[in-house]
Amino acid sequence: MKLLARTAAPVLLCILCACGSASRFETDRSSRDVTASASVLFIGNSLIAAQTSATGEDMPKVLSRLASSSGKTFTYKEAINMGHTLQDTWNANIAQPFLTGATHYDFVVLQEYSTLPVLDAAQFYNTAEVTYQPSVQRSLTTSGTVLLFENWATDVVYPFGTFATRAAYVAALEANYGTLSGNLSTRNAIAPLSRAYEKVFATKPLTYLFMDDKHPNDAGVYLDACVFYAVIFGESPVGLPALYMSAADASFLQAVAAEVVPISTPVPSDAGVDAGSNDGADAGAVPPPDAGVDSKGSDSTTNIPVNSSSTGCSTSGVALNWMVALGCAGLLARRRRP
Prior knowledge:
The chain has 338 residues and is of the alpha/beta class. Helix content is 41%, strand content 13%.
């Protein structure tokens, strides 16, 4: 008993130290249920609202058609300010009517001005953390998630000397989005569009996805929609309808999206039938506040890394900490033997 008493305090200290070293944010890579419904608020500019030449639809509209084809319920709103930063959009009072807390979204997508995440990282972080986060928090469902729209490397910045190579530009984007994700106290995830674009550009020219030096063309819009489909619904986009794309191009882009958003759940057998368009919003338009969104929300979860506030030790962490503690106890017991 004396030995136990003498070793109890050091053992507890070992446990506390091991638990205290855990990060506030834990990357959740566990298998999650596929969700059948989602309400989403998109806040951004023309990278979201660029319309296809084939159908005149923007990315959220294309996404709604993909969701409908697989029997999903998808409602959305758009707060769009063409050619402007998120801070400009806030200053113009475009986003606030959607973030009153009267409507709760499963996802709020924040899309920053194309080059700002690498040209002014301080503003990039501050706008999301300080300007938007308080209002976004009160406008999410209990399990709601902020989705960071990961801008792709444009054809504008690196040729003019900001970065020596495109690879350096892409690396800076990845790093800064990772930093912002870790800084946010709100549950969040990164929609890995930059990674998807670079996988395409490994075998295709920039013109395959760009209509100019940065805006997505028809293929780019389709790729964006496939990535968001995988992120939001936790389901592979492989096998979804080609819509306005050729079957070969659609299959290629679906596979790229599935690669950057690993999903273990198979696509439902009825996927591939275009069930029509979304009645919740018109493509390219900014709908009136609180129009066409299911305020009930849903438990929308994904299989991609999600940052969420966390305190204490995880299950695996507790097991490891007890092993460390028992090891400490054994060493202390040996030292105290006569």
